[in-house]
Amino acid sequence: MKTSDIGVLIDRKNYSESSVILHFYTKSQGRQQFIFKGAKKKKNPLLALGIYEITFAKRPESELGIIQELSRVSGMNEIYDHPQKSLIAFFVAEILKTSLKQSNQDTPVFQFLSKEIISLEVCQDLFTYPLEFLARFIAQLGYMPQIESEMGNYFDLNKGVIVSQPTSGTIQMSSAQLEQLTFLFIGEGNNHFLDKELVRRNLDLLIDYSLFHIPGFQVKNTREIIQDILYS
Fold first, then answer.
1. Of 77 and 50, which is predicted with more confidence?
2. What is the pLDDT, as a whole number, of residue 152?
3. In the beta sheet, which residues pair with residue 11?
């Protein structure tokens, strides 16, 4: 049966000499995978985080749809013309492809992704975007840590809380680092976003926190590159 949907491209894998398997997070069905025959022979590139209209056929017993038509529905181009934004797009896509597994409709998540892609398109302070995105993604999935500055200055990665005494698995934070996390998650305090080193440390912390709490979460391929390009 021929069907159409809108989806955000989050992963691409080679299938044959001319074809690829594409993973989309779609508006109507959550995460879905498709074979796109002859994709490597087409002139239009397949772009990480590109928003596409997908026309496909899929048998009820199959998990793999067959794309018949694929066209971008977004006119945004700066992400793909700007080297650092392209790198951030791959960083975000890696997070999405490892963390978003559900194959059912989740309209709030799809709307969140669409909004984030627009935010990256217009973003000017690129070194802050990975941290801000990851904080919003954690909150969107319901894994927000308990951040209260008066509780102490150690972050317990396993429990996701601020504590006053160090134990196994805790990370000591400066007052500025804690203020930035407080601003990110509850909108209070000083954001300290002009401090690039502080942003880097908090990004590392939230990546490590996500590895503990978000099933499947990984950034193996892009974490080090992001650090070298945006924060060195």
1. 50
2. 84
3. 23
C-alpha 155/C-alpha 83 separation (Å) is 34
Phi, psi angles (nearest 5°) of residue 137: -65, -45
Query: Across-strand partners of 31?
Result: 25
Q: CB neighbours of 72 closer than 8 A, spacing ≥ 6?
A: 44, 47, 50, 51, 52, 53
Residue pLDDT, tens place only, 62-81: 889 999 999 998 767 889 88
Specify burial of residue 212 (Cβ count, 10 A radius: 0-12, 13-18, 19+): middle
pLDDT band at 91 (very low <50, low <70, confident <90, very high): very high
Q: How many CB atoms lie within 10 A of CB 232?
A: 7
- The pLDDT, as a whole number, for residue 125 is 87
Q: Looking at the domain 2-72, which fold is it? A: OB fold (Dihydrolipoamide Acetyltransferase, E2P) (2.40.50)
Bridge-based pairing of strands 154-156 and 51-57 is unpaired
pLDDT tens-digit map of 131-179: 999 999 999 999 999 886 567 889 999 999 988 888 888 999 998 898 8
Residues of the chain with CATH 2.40.50.140: 2-72
